[in-house]
Each structure stands twice: as C-alpha cells, then as structure tokens.
Amino acid sequence: MTAPGTGSSDEELIDAVRQGDLGAYAALYQRYAEPAQRTARQCAADHADQQDLVSEAFVRVLTAIRGGGGPRDNLRPYLQVAIRNLATNRWNDQRRLDARVLEPLPGPAHAGSDEIALRHWRHQLVRLAFRALPARWRLVLWHLEVNGESPSALAPLLDLTPNAVSALAVRAREGLRKAYLQVQVPETGVPGCRAARTRMGAWLRNGLEPRRAGPITSHVGECADCQAVVAELTEVNRELRPPAGSCPVGCG
C-alpha cells in the first residue's frame, strides 16, 4: 500500500495517522499550519501565545486521532475549535491569576472599549510578572490559584507539609504583586536611578529589609525623575491587594 502524501485527502491522511503514520500527520500540519495561525491570531495578541496555541492544538488533535477519536474527514474545523477552546481556557486561567493580584475594576459588568483595553493591559502585565517569578512560586500559584488544587494535594509534589505549602503560596502571591509593579518600572541609563529602580516594585510594597529600602528611599527623595515614577506606580499599587500584615507605600 502506498503511503498517503500531500495530495491525499484529509480522510486518507487521518486514517493513516490513526494507523501510526506520523508522516501523514506532518502532511496535515503543512496543510493547515497557516489557517491555524490565522485562527490563533484572532484569539491571542502575543506572537508567542499564538505559537503555543497552534502547537498545543496540533498535539491535542494528534492525541485524539491516535486514540481513536478526533476528526474523520476534515481536520480544519476540529483544529479551529481546539485552538479556540485552548484560548478560552487560558483566558479563564488568567482571570483566576489576576484575581490574586488585582482588586476588581469598579463599574458595570458590560465594559466599554476603554475599560476592555485596560483589562487587557492588566492581563498582559500580570502574565509578564508571572513569568518573572521563580519556578517554585510559579508552580505553587498555578496549582493552587489556576487549577484550584488544595495545599494538601500539592504538598507531596513539593515535598512540603500542607502548612508549608500555604506559607509558600502567601509569599508567591505577594511576589507576584511586587513583580506586577516591577514590570512597569521604566528602564533608565542613569546609574543612581537604575540601582533604585531595580527593586522599586518590592520597595513600593514595603517588601525590602531596611538596609535595602534605605538607599532607595534616599534616592527617591532627591531625584525628580524617580519621584515621578513612584507617583505613577503608587496609583498602580492601589489596584493591588494589600500584603498580609503590612501597609503598602501610599496607602495612608
């Protein structure tokens, strides 16, 4: 029997994949990679996210076909649905993560275009902040906040007690809030300003030891440019949930 090629129908290629022919799946990938990219661009603004959606969707479709399910004679609509479902799941995951960092925006549930843009911008910042965290913090936040697992369920994976997992989660949540501020600190080529701004997110959250906070406080007191940055970020800081047991800078 001749192996299906690029001129074969979707049905022929899918049947070949179901029988273990990964070359047939490569032909399907070549056929539908660009349409899949177009669908992903409708679902995500970031190029890296688009690539992730396409890659994961193809993997899911391949797994379904090899398991006896999936499409029978037309891959494209099945692939498009997979991409949209993945994007929806990611959006819901992002909203759960946002809720641990940000106070809800005031106003009606049906937002106008300006508020939609603001929400999107905040989502993007939370995502950047999450990526900046240590791997262990990302792991605990993802399992507890996004997947909704309990500290008891996560404890064996981290080789910790449930109480220790809960304590780690508190530090990780506050670390995410600090990182949310830090990713918004403008870069500068001025050495004194650069040193102060490196930890400005944590400083704004009262999260530094006195020996680290002191030089930043002194510099900000003398630098008009950094005072302007602090004034802007103090407003942003009011969007954040307060740290446990302390008052962030600017809260009165």
How does this model look, in words?
InterPro entries: RNA_pol_sigma-70-like (IPR039425), RNA_pol_sigma-70_dom (IPR014284), RNA_pol_sigma70_r2 (IPR007627), RNA_pol_sigma_r2 (IPR013325), RNA_pol_sigma_r3/r4-like (IPR013324), WH-like_DNA-bd_sf (IPR036388), Znf_put (IPR027383). The chain has 252 residues and is mainly α. The protein folds into 3 domains: 10-97, Rna Polymerase Sigma Factor, Chain: A (Orthogonal Bundle); 100-183, Up-down Bundle (Butyryl-CoA Dehydrogenase, subunit A, domain 3), CATH 1.20.140; 186-252, no CATH class. The chain is built from 12 helices and no strands. It has helices spanning 10-18, 22-43, 47-66, 75-99, 113-132, 135-146, 151-158, 162-182, 191-197, 200-204, 210-222, 224-237. The termini are far apart. Residues 105-111 and 245-252 have low confidence and may be disordered.
